[in-house]
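Input sequence (276 aa), recorded before submission:
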Amino acid sequence: MPSDLAPVMITVAPNGSRIRSTDHPKVPVSPQAIAATIEACVLAGASIAHIHARAADESPTHEVSVFREIVDETRRRCDAVLQLSLGTRGFTPEQAVAPLALFPEMVSLPLRLNGPDPGEAKRMVHAMAAKVHASAAIPEMSIYDEAMLDTALELIEAGLVRPPYCFGLVLGTPDSFEQGARKLMDLAAALPEGALWWCAKGGRYQLELRALAISLGGHVRVGFEDSILAFDGNGLAVDNADIVRRIADLCKAMGRTIATPAQARAMLGAPETSGR
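Predicted structure, token format:
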């Protein structure tokens, strides 16, 4: 393992938009529970938190007031880089970008082009990217396939994304480790030079694929949004913090140090005081 690799930025995605307490009793739903989970994950080794907001009935929401409560409570507890999700399905583009009113330091930018009119979908993606650019938030562009990567490169070419370019490589649920590894390596190889990227999801091969990402010099995302299962596939994971701790231990065993929130901000080019 090269000794000059940057520290690994571990992102925790503690709840996503769909996992409910009936799926796992420790999925955080309320702003207080989400903030407490993020604090525990930072202590375990995470530096970035990918945040979805939930309504009282556990359904996803993009209400700014709920995101504000999550952000304020998390800021009171810890110094994690907060990445607000703009990619929850079921919301209009206007609803999706509503959390930009909080001037977040980082957001996830969806690049989905599905639907009856791909051209209109692409125009909406460009419009959302323009609003993110105007807000000065750092976008992590979510990449599921080559078409999404092409869209991301178009946004960069159009000047709608500032460097360093950040990509979330979402592997879904591959049928084999080989299939997931091939997808990860192909997508990573096609990124612009110097890009920062995270490995997300991976199904039953999530641990092995994260080890591959670490060995390639990448970063990782873990948490209940990606999987509520233990890494060995036997039953449920203990909680989000335990998942982060396992990945932090893996990084150390592979000779990679773990980024603190301050180090993550430095790599992302975010001001130390951003969002605080």
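Checked by second reader. The chain has nine helices and ten strands.
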